[in-house]
Fold this protein.
Amino acid sequence: MFFSKNTKTTGDKAEDIACKHLTKNKINIIERNFKNRSGEIDIIALDKDTLLFVEVKYRKSDSHGQPYENVTAQKQHKIIQTAEYYLQKNPRLSHNDCRFDVISIHNNDITWLKNAFDAS
């Protein structure tokens, strides 16, 4: 698929692929790479009335497991904190149901884990 020694470039390409996949599945992308002091959310999108916070993971090989396995409890906690901040800054969206998804890209395979974790 693609590989660069620059992890930012590789990450951006993986996010582009994830956005295309979401858009193809009728998901409306709202924002990419939302950051605050707690962390970053790769993609924020709407699936009808449900607000999605999407983490994108890419690996060129499976020698260290599947990409989604790298979304640790610590990473989940940072995403949840960042999502809470996003909702405070965007009160018009704070009444939407929310979901935390992971899009895992390995070679040409895209795995979309809907509701991969929750805020509880």
Notes: Residues 29 and 45 are 4 Å apart (CA to CA). The mean pLDDT is 88. The chain has two helices and five strands.
